[in-house]
Amino acid sequence: MGRIEIVEGDITKEKVDVIVNAANSSLLGGGGVDGAIHRAAGPGLLEECKDLRSSTLPDGLPPGDAIATRAYNLKKVKWIVHTVGPNRHAGETDPEVLRRCFANSLSLARGLRSHSIAIPAIGAGVYGWDHLEVARIAMAEADMEKHKRGGIEKIRFVLFSHDAKETWIDARMEMPD
Length: 177
Description:
The chain has helices at 32-41, 43-54, 95-111, 131-146, 162-174, and strands spanning 3-8, 18-23, 66-70, 79-84, 116-119, 154-159. It is of the alpha/beta class and 177 residues long.
């Protein structure tokens, strides 16, 4: 069985098989977690994302979907899984799309034979989702993953602030054992 961890920190410093990027649909970098991952991974990541845009994703990555790239300069990581959260400020308010971000990221990481994954608060922050709602959705998906045969052994949620971490811990405490 897998374990779920909640920490405050910088996702680019994690030593895991996969980190999840809360990407924008262009996949070409941006602010927040997306910008930090692109800066840390270096120019190779941007080039691979440009290749994806010119081939399989000409319209960008749709909200809820996930795609993997190499990790480049993130030497402690094997893969980056990119997912696009729904933007509440743009009227994207369906929690099912947010759930798919977590489910598809975990499924893709499992398909890459990953044993550990670090995930940010997808959708919280600039996309306007409440941390508690995001945490509840994420915890439900992580809880299902940890019970799957061959599932990911360590799911680590990496939050950017103490308050966010405490909110996620509260959500975890709500989950049944």
